[in-house]
Design a protein that fits this description.
about 475 residues; alpha/beta; Rossmann fold; Helicase, Ruva Protein, domain 3; Cobalt-precorrin-4 Transmethylase, domain 1; 4 domains; 6-stranded mixed beta sheet; 5-stranded parallel beta sheet; 14 helices; about 35% helix; binds S-adenosyl-L-homocysteine
């Protein structure tokens, strides 16, 4: 993030705009929303600028900006539509200590002006670091449509009630109160009876909030999916947003953790297959401690929580502690891996069943029904199998598996850095080493990817995430 968004207090400050043509008009439409004193310098002003000046909304000086004109200004916009003139006034602005923006010139600007959704006092600023103004406009249009025009009015009334709302228990109680107000009930009251009805509604909601007993602690064991936030369920998203405490393992993608509230306590439990890990008892104790304190706990587990996720151990501990829990299923790594390679996990005439197996378990490399897996047409999704590759190959070939049985390896399925390798049982260990697979990977045994290819690195562009996988 090169540009950090902040909200600048412009009440009674000076803004100087150099230029009085169309380019300046576009900026002025935004600047006129502020409480700043605006002065525009430029010859041949656009008619609307003259009108604004006539209505005393800004001061107009019909000559080019010069030394001294920017003194005391907080912001200076160079909007002359003329590179040399912009550079000249930008120098004057900087020397005068103003923050300078040269319209449409990122490099020459000290700040950029975002696209704005205005529901004053709620203001949403959208920036793309100058990379995609069209995208910013699309997001703006989307938000304009979604946020009721009454939002600003509700926020203003809400503001006057903040002090009274202190009577509600801090934390969840007060948060739920405001959340009810802003997610529908306030708006409905406004439409029915205007400001008075909104204030009455706030009183009723407050009585409710004070009288209801606090929700007891609860744990949601949530499948976070393979990494792409779009592959989260709607329920996972909602619970994550509501959680007071989020516990996640190392595989949880940062974009998913972003969905938690800013005040939420976020704890990484750092359980990995081989690396340093917390003991399961430590994790259980921590979950229970937070739930006992009344927290809504989101226990995030990668993929589906019930797939190699040590789910039962956590549930047993929660039951023993008498804490309520629920499971939210997620998309397991094998499903995501198969989908991005154009494979289906089962296929009529090829494999009518598929096994989900692990390459290693508590005892080390895991033993399975190798004879059955070695049969022609057998299919398996192998988790935690990269380090066990040579072992797997040995066991399977010893039991008669064909050396050329296809294996598709998908590392970081659904993430921007996804990598896919099409190989065979015989070449598996060597190809894994050659490809430098060291992230989480699933081995799809007995499944050839639809299009053969050795290895492809996806562009790190989430919008085109699924383009050209193989
Ligand atoms: N509960 C998880 C699996 C946890 S075990 C699920 O349902 O997916 C951890 C193993 O899952 C990793 O070693 C790897 O084999 C697999 N895995 C998890 N996320 C993955 C991803 N994005 N791409 C490929 N494999 C992944």
């Amino acid at each position: 993030m090169r540009h950090f968004p902040i909200f600048l207090d412009l009440a009674d400050r000076q803004i100087v705009v150099s230029g009085a043509g169309d380019c300046a008009v576009a900026k002025l439409r935004l600047l006129l929303k502020t409480e700043a004193a605006i002065t525009v310098f430029g010859r041949d002003p656009a008619p609307v600028i003259r009108q604004w000046a006539g209505a005393n909304r800004l001061s107009l000086v019909e000559r080019p900006l010069d030394q001294g004109d920017a003194d005391g200004a907080t912001l200076l916009y160079a909007a002359n539509d003329d590179e040399n003139e912009d550079a000249r006034v930008a120098r004057i602005g900087r020397a005068a200590g103003a923050l300078v923006n040269v319209v449409d010139d990122l490099e020459a600007s000290q700040f950029i002006t975002p696209a704005i959704v205005d529901r004053d006092p709620v203001t949403i600023a959208i920036g793309t670091e100058g990379a995609a103004p069209v995208l910013a406009r699309a997001i703006k249009a989307d938000l304009e449509e979604r946020l009721p025009a009454s939002l600003g009015r509700l926020a203003r009334i809400g503001q006057t009630f903040r002090e009274r709302a202190m009577a509600i228990r801090a934390g969840r109680g007060r948060r739920d109160f405001w959340s009810r107000f802003y997610s529908g009930e306030g708006d409905a009251a406004l439409r029915e009876g205007g400001d008075a009805a909104v204030l009455a509604k706030l009183e009723t909601l407050m009585t409710d909030a004070i009288e209801t007993r606090p929700r007891p602690g609860h744990v949601a064991l949530i499948g976070a999916g393979p990494g792409d936030p779009d592959l989260l369920t709607v329920k996972a998203r909602r619970l994550l947003h509501e959680a007071d405490v989020v516990l996640h393992d190392r595989l949880a993608a940062p974009e998913i953790l972003e969905l938690a509230r800013r005040e939420a306590i976020i704890i990484e439990t750092g359980k990995t297959g081989f690396g340093p890990s917390w003991s399961q008892d430590d994790i259980n104790a921590l979950i229970i401690e937070h739930a006992r304190n009344g927290a809504q706990v989101a226990r995030l587990k990668s993929g589906d929580p019930g797939m190699f996720g040590r789910l039962d151990e956590e549930i047993d501990a929660l039951d023993a502690a008498g804490i309520s829990w629920e499971i939210v299923p997620g998309i397991t790594a094998a499903a995501a891996a198969a989908s991005t390679t154009g494979l289906s996990l089962t296929k009529r005439g090829r494999n009518s069943s598929v096994r989900f197996i692990t390459g290693h378990d508590v005892e080390g490399f895991a033993e399975h029904d190798w004879r059955d897996l070695a049969r022609p047409g057998a299919g398996a999704a192998i988790y935690m199998g990269v380090r066990a590759a040579a072992f797997l190959r040995g066991r399977l070939m010893m039991h008669g598996a064909a050396p050329d049985t296809p294996v598709t390896v998908v590392e970081n399925a659904s993430r921007a850095n996804q990598k896919t390798i099409a190989t065979t049982l015989l070449a598996l260990p060597d190809d894994l080493a050659a490809a430098g697979i060291n992230g989480p990977a699933v081995l799809l045994y007995g499944m050839a990817a639809r299009k053969a290819a050795k290895q492809v690195q996806l562009a790190a562009d989430p919008i085109h995430e699924n383009a050209g996988v193989l």
